[in-house]
Amino acid sequence: MSITEPRTVDHQVRADAVSAPQPHDGLRPRLSWRRGRVLAGCTLTLAVLLALRSHLPSGPGQLGSLAQTLAPWSGVAVPVLLVLALARRSAPAQIAVVLTALIWGALFGGVLIDKRQQGGGLTVVSHNVDEANRDPEGTARRLAASGADIIALEELRAAAVPAYERVLNRAYGHHSVRGTVGLWSTYPLSDTESVAIMPWTRALRSTVETPEGPVAVYVAHLASVRVHPGTGFTTSRRNEAARLLADALDAERLERTLLVGDLNGSTDDSALARLTSGMRSAQKSAGKGFGFSWPASFPVVRIDHILARGIDPVSSRTLPATGSDHLPVAATFRL
Q: Domain named Endonuclease/exonuclease/phosphatase: which ranges (predicted)?
């Protein structure tokens, strides 16, 4: 017994050593193809909605328009979903997040690139000044300080028009106010007329006689959009105003045309496609970032636009806040 017993013990020790788990085996992360399937499904749903966003039906409550307008903010969900996928160590979820990130980047990544250039011969500013603005003269001074050649104002309150005129008329020798919209220019204006897009005047058209030739300028403020618990995202009045404005632009004879103002929607909203598809967004073509303009305190969407046809944008930007709930937007063009 004294001879064989050590051998038995030695054999047992070796067997235990072989069967014992290697150091760190329990700490080594392993991806699972079974975990996180619900998370992967939700992420893929987001990816599909992004890829097909321009084809989303209006559906009940015009939710398609709302989703298209807020689509850029879907990028905020990507890092959150990635953290959840990593925490779950789910292979399907991680693949779905990468796919969603690629789709978002393909759709909106180019918007983040700085495309602004130097130069240009015509600078335009558009601003919804807010009828409740308590400092119209201060707002006018800030807009005039931009050095713009053309300033377009929307949501003008009749009682506040003299205050804007007192300031802007010093630097802008030509102007016209029709209803709640106005146009100030350093260059002569001609053929100015109201554009009937609503029962009351919220749009005008004028020819700006620049040294390089005439440019048709449309200033518009489309009907407001409301969100109601019962009816959802209501856009019917805005969409009808956009259709009438598109008709006016289709009939425009001047090759060089600008559409500026508050469209109460983004250029990604398919409900506005007939109005915006034939024109270039100065922000998308020659800006940096999304250029969100509303609300001024924390902008989440760009509903104030400078769109062009037959004229090339050189740069685009938002201006500092005024007494309005919108930020002013500015763009420079090469004539």
A: 126-326
Cβ neighbors of 217 (< 8 A, separation 6 or more) are 124, 150, 152, 183, 205, 206, 207, 208, 257, 258, 260
Please state, rounded to an integer, the average pLDDT across all residues of the chain.
Answer: 91
* Burial (Cβ within 10 Å: 0-12, 13-18, ≥19) of residue 116: middle
Angle of helix 136-144 relative to helix 161-168, nearest 10 degrees?
A: 30
3-state secondary structure 164-220: HHHHHCCCCCEEEEECCEEEEECCCEEEEEECCCCCCCCEEEEEEEECCEEEEEEEE
Show me where the domains of the chain are located.
Answer: 9-112, 122-334
pLDDT in tens, 221-263: 999 887 766 666 678 899 999 999 999 999 999 999 999 999 9
- Phi, psi (rounded to 5 degrees) for 313: -75, 140
| pTM for the structure as a whole | 0.88
To the nearest 5 percent, what fractions of the chain are helix, strand and coil? 40, 25, 35
Paired tokens of 16? 């235990």
Per residue in 20-46, pLDDT (tens digit) is: 455 544 445 688 999 999 999 999 999
> Which CATH superfamily does the domain covering 122-334 fall into?
Endonuclease/exonuclease/phosphatase (3.60.10.10)
What three-state secondary structure class fits 244? helix
For residue 78, what are the CA distances in angstroms to 18, 44, 94, 212?
45, 11, 11, 47
d(CA 295, CA 303): 10
For residue 281, what is the enclosing H or E element? strand 280-281
Least confident of 18-22, 102-106, 270-274: 18-22
Angle, CA 32 vertex, CA 29 and CA 34 arms, to 5°:
155
